[in-house]
Design goal:
The protein has 165 residues and is mainly alpha-helical. It is built from 7 helices and 2 strands.
């Protein structure tokens, strides 16, 4: 068996899922006038764009939680606790239980959108700029991830180029 074939079989045996550090789902959706007609449709559009929900998903819990986080961070300029999030969602969306709320917050935390400390939650702040500034937040949203992925892709291409000469 040649060395190249051995390397191929070694790569195929790798558990590829163990190599994944983080997955990022972003969708480039059209921002139509219909989307901009209501607050709910805008928040749903954001949730779809950021991969928080999937197309056709009918459950509103994750959308309501995103709305609450946006409200507290960019309107109130504060970091809410579970009770404040629950009250906001119950008033503006539909009744949510704490277990569902915590599940979606944890999911958004794993996605890299949410941070929590000392019982309060916020959208992950930008590396540069005010955490309560929506423009700074949106500009920096994928910047660090993009830099890391870009650097690693460059390294892999360099190695591939060196091995094929």
């Amino acid at each position: 068996m040649s060395i190249n074939l051995q390397v191929y079989f070694y790569v195929m045996e790798l558990n590829e899922s163990s190599l994944i550090e983080r997955e990022i789902t972003i969708r480039n959706l059209r921002l139509t006038k219909e989307v901009l007609e209501t607050k709910r449709s805008i928040v749903r559009w954001l949730a779809l764009s950021l991969g928080i929900i999937n197309p056709g998903e009918s459950r509103l819990s994750a959308v309501a939680i995103l709305d609450a986080l946006i409200y507290f961070q960019f309107i109130k300029k504060s970091d809410p606790n579970i009770d404040e999030l629950t009250q906001y969602i119950n008033k503006n969306w539909e009744e949510i239980n704490e277990k569902t709320l915590r599940y979606h917050l944890l999911r958004m935390k794993k996605m890299g959108y949410v941070e929590n400390s000392k019982g309060v939650f916020s959208l992950k702040p930008p590396s540069i700029g005010d955490k309560y500034d929506y423009e700074a937040w949106s500009k920096a949203l994928f910047e660090e991830d993009y830099k890391q992925v870009s650097r690693k892709v460059g390294e892999a291409l360099k190695e591939l180029k060196n091995r094929t000469q």
